[in-house]
């Protein structure tokens, strides 16, 4: 099969590109390199240097070849930043999604996999894992913008027969176990790589956003999913998209508090992670844990890297081996 991957130079997209290649597919990447890296795209993979805000350029890529499917990772993706720059986030994520899906419909693409997010749930703390049927009530423009793209896909199916899978990832983390790819956001804002950099002595203290949440230790709880397990879910879902569009939550079903993440990094690295209290980060939900039963039942997906320590271990390895991140 021939697949187009938007955002394939980014963290999650680059790992899915590897999984697609490993599965024997033809892959091309569309990216504007705003946060992604050319060196994250494996040698030999064709690259379209295109901004999805440009509807004509986007349509040209879709018309360039017959595509068996499109995987859409390209996005602005930071919860906190979306609170500060809300209209920019809403516009970018909506318009880029609209341009892409419209071009897919126009060129007869029948399958789209979309990176949605747990951030469209938000709301009060939850004791139970969140199923797909839970109320959508984003706490941030980022979460809202992702839901807007889910709605575009809903109409693309009803009116044009484009089938889609919206995968609502919880917190993606880890790195390719073979060392071929890793997480390199600049600046880095995610908890696990930041805590590791403190452990490695590359940063001073970690700022812990919020210690007064209604959780067992006062810090937020997240469900971390290894990026390789996430990639495997994409391959399985692609094989199954056919008669109907689907929406799946994608996580391990186990939550870890931010303080437990710090402890895991200390355990795995053998180094102390200095941290200091900071105020809550606007837009953060207290608890986000996935119920991924539907995905497991429909596709047979089972995460292989489900413990936090394993996730931290692969991130640590990649950061040790690539102190400057991607350099080419
Ligand atoms: N990382 C997570 O924990 C997480 C969790 C839930 C959902 N997601 C979603 O998964 C996707 C990938 O996240 P990530 O962490 O890999 O992000 P990332 O920033 O590493 O990757 C995004 C990629 O998209 C490209 N891009 C951005 N805007 C573009 C545009 N207008 N035109 C073309 N290319 C563009 C960037 O250059 C980058 O290569 C995003 O859609 C994000 O919202 C991520
Ligand atoms: O320096 C930091 C960085 C993060 N945190 C805290 O750590 C937790 C996790 O934060 P991340 O920034 O690592 O991840 P988010 O949960 O904000 O968001 C990630 O997962 C979401 C899904 O849950 C999204 O889709 C989003 O794209 C992706 O960045 C949050 O409570 C955050 O406040 C800190 O305390 N200090």
From TrEMBL:
<protein>
    <recommendedName>
        <fullName>UDP-glucose 4-epimerase</fullName>
        <ecNumber>5.1.3.2</ecNumber>
    </recommendedName>
</protein>
<dbReference type="InterPro" id="IPR001509">
    <property type="entry name" value="Epimerase_deHydtase"/>
</dbReference>
<feature type="domain" description="NAD-dependent epimerase/dehydratase">
    <location>
        <begin position="4"/>
        <end position="251"/>
    </location>
</feature>
<dbReference type="InterPro" id="IPR036291">
    <property type="entry name" value="NAD(P)-bd_dom_sf"/>
</dbReference>
<dbReference type="GO" id="GO:0003978">
    <property type="term" value="F:UDP-glucose 4-epimerase activity"/>
</dbReference>
<comment type="pathway">
    <text>Carbohydrate metabolism; galactose metabolism.</text>
</comment>
<dbReference type="GO" id="GO:0006012">
    <property type="term" value="P:galactose metabolic process"/>
</dbReference>
<keyword id="KW-0520">NAD</keyword>
<dbReference type="Pfam" id="PF01370">
    <property type="entry name" value="Epimerase"/>
</dbReference>
<keyword id="KW-0413">Isomerase</keyword>
<comment type="subunit">
    <text>Homodimer.</text>
</comment>
<dbReference type="InterPro" id="IPR005886">
    <property type="entry name" value="UDP_G4E"/>
</dbReference>
<comment type="similarity">
    <text>Belongs to the NAD(P)-dependent epimerase/dehydratase family.</text>
</comment>
<keyword id="KW-0119">Carbohydrate metabolism</keyword>
